Amino acid sequence: MGTIGVYASRFSVNTRSLEAFDEAIRFFKEKKMTDPTEIKIMMKKLLDVLNPLVESIKGNLSESTAISERNVVDIIKERNNRNWPTYKKRIQELHAKLELAKLEFSENDFRLLNDIADALDAECATLYRRMSERE
């Protein structure tokens, strides 16, 4: 697979993860929490993005193929450089909350989820630009 193929593959995977993550954020914002099966599916969509991010923040290698977690963490870190220790702690706390299936989201939780979605979107944009440059 050539360079453009690698970028295209990563772009596709990251885009699908972003779409699922955004869908889950909207689901919980709109409080559509009636069907337990759907709640589990939406929690999984959030965790599919948060799990590799938290592993990367901890300095562990992630086995995820859903996102480019190192790049996304770098984007988040760059955007929150001044308060990075506090910010990464907030990400880890939100992750722990989701792992325990606590469904009470605060405005700060939603802001944090949106920041993560924005960073994932920025990674998708970067991959798209790289593909466009190779054409």
Task: Give a description of the structure.
The structure is a single chain. With 135 residues, the protein is mainly α. It has one domain (3-134). 77% of the residues lie in helices and 0% in strands. Helix 1 packs across helix 2, helix 1 (3-29) packs antiparallel against helix 5 (107-134) and helix 2 crosses helix 3 (69-79). The longest helix has 28 residues, at 107-134. It is globular. The model has no long low-confidence stretch (mean pLDDT 87).
Fraction of helical residues: over 70%
| Distance separating the two termini | 15 Å
* Alpha carbon gyration radius: 15 Å
The average pLDDT is 87
Number of domains: 1
Helices, strands, pairings?
Layout: H1 3-29, H2 36-57, H3 69-79, H4 84-99, H5 107-134
In brief:
The chain has 135 residues and is an all-alpha fold.
Tags for this model:
single chain; 135 residues
